[in-house]
Amino acid sequence: MATIKVMSAGAVEGPLTELAPAFTSASGHAVDLHFNTVGALREKFAVGEKTDVIVLSAQAIEALDNEGRFAAGSRVDLGRASCGVAVRDGMMMPNISTVEAFTRMLHNAGSIAANDPAHGGSSGIYLADLLKRMGLYDEVKPKLVLCKTGRECAVALLRGQAEIGITFTSEFIAVPGTRVVGIFPEEIAYVNGYAGAIPKDAAMEPARAFLSFLASPSSRQCFKSFGLD
Asked: Domain limits of the chain?
């Protein structure tokens, strides 16, 4: 049986890590998972790194599909991740139910773990833009503990390197010891869809089987358990 390589954005790391062994048991095909930010993976793929399945934001997948990079009809939409706030287990949970409360949380926090926009993380890029639009960037910037991935944001909470974490809630749920406070208030909410596709030079049959497995009803429930609609 084949071993398929999967390059995936970190927002869906939780469900993919949980589902890959089940797919292997059912199909006999092993899955070699590689996680990073959308920006970093898109760059690797653009310069020729090979993979059998790539999972990115729906927008990035659409752009690459328009370039003719994928097998026809191979795209599968997997779920939508919401940006939110988390703390370490046992820590006081701030109120973020309104934009005003969210702003107070930013004022009061001594340190905030977030994705580094320079590394191509979708949540980090959005947060930097949001802070600028809210007129808070100069105040909050010195408090930011910039991380390469959402998982690193969660780990920063566990290590006490940051009081507050901000990235997709699915990335916190995947790391035991963190506690999701909630998603951003509706007025400033950020929801990002994720999709998988198969490059034209991939191991086509096992790659299609893997994406079909991810789209099955039982797998959909797994995605939902990680906060992915």
From this structure: 3-80+193-225, 81-188
Q: What is the pLDDT of residue 87?
A: 98
| Strands, E assignment, the chain | 3-9, 30-36, 53-57, 76-88, 112-115, 144-147, 164-168, 178-183, 191-197
- What is the C-alpha separation between 111 and 55, in angstroms, rounded? 31
Q: DSSP 3-state helix, strand, coil percentages of the chain (rounded to 5)?
A: 45, 25, 30
Task: Please determine, looking at this structure, whether the domain spanning 81-188 carries the CATH number 3.40.50.1980.
Answer: no
Q: Give the model's pLDDT for residue 36.
A: 94
Q: Which residues of the chain have pLDDT under 50?
A: none
Residue range 3-80+193-225 forms a domain whose CATH class is alpha beta
Question: Computed from CA positions of residues 170, 10, 147, 160, in that sequence, does the dihedral angle turn out positive or negative?
Answer: positive
